[in-house]
Amino acid sequence: GDGIARENSPFINSAEMDRGNMYEGKNMALFEEEMDSNPMVSSLLNKLANYTNLTQGVVEHEADEDSKRKEVKVPRMGTFIGVYLPCLQNILGVILFLRLTWIVGTAGVLESFIIVFMCCACTMLTAISMSAIATNGVVPAGGSYYMISRSLGPEFGGAVGLCFYLGTTFAGAMYILGTIEILLTYISPSAAIFKAEEAGEETEAMLNNMRIYGTCIIILMAIVVFVGVKYVNKLALVFLACVILSIIAIYAGVIKTAFDPPDFPICLLGNRTLSKRSFDVCAKFTESNNETKTTTLWNLFCDSSLLNATCDDYFSLNNVTEIQGIPGIMSGVLADNLWSTYSEKGSIVEKKDQPSVAGSEEIKMGGLPYVFTDIMTYFTMLVGIYFPSVTGIMAGSNRSGDLKDAQKSIPTGTILAISTTSFIYLSCIVLFGACIEGVILRDNHLKIASGSMTVRRHADNLRWLCLVVSLFTCIYSLTGAPRLLQAIARDGIVPFIQVFGHGKANGEPTWALLLTAGICEIGILIASLDSVAPILSMFFLMCYMFVNLACAVQTLLRTPNWRPRFKYYHWTLSFLGMSLCLALMFICSWYYALIAMLIAGCIYKYIEYRGAEKEWGDGIRGLSLNAARYALLRVEDGPPHTKNWRPQLLVLLNLDSEQLVKHPRLLSFTSQLKAGKGLTIVGSVLQGIYLDKCTETQKAEE
Q1: Torsion over CA: 360, 361, 362, 367 (sign)
Q2: Residue 121: enclosing H or E segment and its boundaries?
Q3: How far apart are CA 443 and CA 426, in angstroms?
Q4: Residue pLDDT, tens place only, 310-366
Q5: Pairing of strands 265-269, 648-652
Q6: Which residue windows are transmembrane per the record (predicted)?
């Protein structure tokens, strides 16, 4: 009304301005927030065509590189395209396809449900705290680092930011290892460079293959990111479709088992599972033309093919049987998979409630075709392996500058994405336990069936979808991690990493990319997905813990600038989330937790020692001021008791012509008088007018 245009700011809600046009032209609107002023289905399709899974910083860098392109106004994204889909794509990953079935078989349906529920509750509480922080202002490039550093100060921000960077980098290594495992175990086992010559050497051969293929892939991925991730980003919608199709395929496969279970035979000797890589007929002997012939399986357990040969004691006492590995959802196998079956490394995978006669334990079983566990399993270890599958909740908050209404989209999209993925994980636990035999679930690399993927049995082409999903998630990690390190380096709070703030002319973090690829190579040299997953779990949990702490501190301090648009938060929820993150760190691995805390503590003390010059009005400084104010008010309550008396000295010093203390021993004498306690106020007098002596005054004060 005053002729001045309304300020366009993310802090001003424009809902009132658009209320008059709310119902204008609402034809076939699938998602209200995705529509333009004249919404049609084509508007949503257009947004999907421009879908990107990259953060705003990456998009800006790639846009700057092409200086000749025309200026086009990019439409702002809404909740569905801008937050929900990127979060969904980042949360659902390789753990779902490669390890969830194994976790269900090892921990049982009930304990698996507890594991998933704890991890999902942790991310949900963190998302509530993150939503409060993100809706208190715009979160630029840096995401979680920016939130923590501006809320808890540069020391905490630098320490946790670098830990989150390490977690994101190791996540890239984990996705690469998952990609290779899918390729060599389920798609093309013949592509392996190292092959096991004897039984029991499969694990070592696989680790060496992981290292060779992983190094090649990390070099290729680094080149792709360096050349320009915008070319890969053109396929972002394809990668998103792969994620959604793979989830649909799992449910479709489960439904199919209800009326047409797949033919998936499993060979058992007594209650012990046999690997069919060494034989084809699941029987001791066969009848042909009224003649009994021994099989290849007989030759593996006996010293000759004759019926009177000397055989393994257990082989002689027990029958060979064949059962269906995927009996279907109506088979009642859920009751057998309810309870946990933890085991030592190298123990035989056995079927529960199957008749078995114990044989002699003196005979070595190394060369026999049994299926052995390749890792020691227990509850806390499974928590550490599973937790990376619920990370990725920061994808929406990292792109607040690209959103039409970040104050509404970030909380709604993130919480809906976590709710959706939690439902997927929890339902998959029950469905896997109700469809598949426990011996298949507990066989980590599916040695039972010569490398046929468990989940793939629900949908034939799922293995290719999993491969594409893992590759793109790896590229996303290698794209986001260098920019996070660049944001920390450009803040200048950690001096020794400032070189990583530089890059190409358009701002691409070249040096940070090289460091990221090097650290990622360390994870690849470890070569075991089950060993890398707990490491990145520590770093992500530490980051989430401090996000919750930041929200709790800001809420309790009631600082004037703490006014989140997201109202459904409370400091008790943040404190509960922080406690759950800390508990999960020690549940996963107490020694990894101590190492992660030691790394963060060393970085914290280093930043504190070097003197963090940044002043962001953080909550820790606010806590100090509140504590000082509270203490001063308490001091004035009454005269101090004799026991609490401390000396308070006023020292008047003379300065020389260079504004240095003329008698420094006077300060030493003062220190001795008060024995290191009490309070000393030091002063000096300069003759002249203050405005004329301003420089000398500052020098004297220093």
Answers
A1: positive
A2: helix 100-134
A3: 21
A4: 888 888 889 999 998 889 898 889 999 999 999 998 888 999 888 888 876 655 566
A5: unpaired
A6: 77-100, 112-135, 156-177, 212-229, 236-255, 375-395, 415-441, 511-529, 535-556, 568-585
Instruction: Read off the amino acid at residue 398.
Output: N
Both tokens of residue 135? 């809706």
b or e along 164-178 (b: 16 or more beta carbons within 10 Å of the residue's beta carbon)?
bbbbbbbbbbbbbbb
pLDDT at position 418, please?
A: 96
Helix (H, G, I), strand (E, B) or coil at 286: strand
Pairing between β-strand 320-324 and β-strand 291-294 as defined by DSSP bridges: unpaired
- Both tokens of 72, joined, read 């086009």
Residue pair 538/385 in contact (Cβ under 8 Å)? The answer is no
C-alpha 254 chain-centroid distance: 28
Both structure tokens of 10? 């993310």
The yes-or-no verdict on residue 278 having pLDDT over 50 is yes
Query: Is the Cβ–Cβ distance between 550 and 619 less than 8 Å?
Result: yes
SS3 288: strand
Contact between 487 and 282 (Cβ < 8 Å): no
Give the Cα separation of 402 and 193 in Å (integer): 45
Q: How many degrees, rounded to 5, is the angle at CA 422 between CA 419 and CA 423?
A: 85
| pLDDT above 70: residue 607 | yes
Integer Cα distance of 670 and 675 in angstroms: 8
User: Which amino acid makes up residue 363?
Assistant: I
Residues 414 and 420: their CA atoms lie apart, in Å, by 10
* pLDDT digit string, tens, across residues 426-485: 999 999 999 999 999 998 877 776 544 443 444 345 677 788 878 888 887 888 888 888
Please give the torsion angle defined by the CA atoms of residues 84, 237, 517 and 186, in that order, rounded to the nearest 10 degrees. Answer: 100
d(CA 689, CA 702): 19
SS3 letters across 419-487: HHHHHHHHHHHHHHHHHCCHHHHHCCCCHHHCCCCCHHHHCCCHHHHHHHHHHHHHHHHHHHHHHHHHH
Phi, psi of 323 (to 5 degrees): -125, 165
The rounded mean pLDDT for the chain is: 81
Question: Hey, how many other C-beta atoms are within 10 angstroms of the C-beta on 685?
Answer: 9
- Locus of tokens 């994101």: 168
Measured CA to CA, the distance from residue 422 to residue 285 in angstroms comes to 49
Lowest average pLDDT, out of 243-257, 495-509, 527-541, goes to 495-509
Cα–Cα dist 12/589, whole Å = 45
Query: In 3-state terms, what secondary structure has residue 604?
Result: helix
How many residues are given for the chain? Answer: 702
pTM of the complete model: 0.81
Among 106, 186, 181, 99, smallest CA distance to 442 is for: 106
**Partners of 324 in the β-ladder:** 265
State the CB neighbour count (10 A cutoff) for residue 347: 13
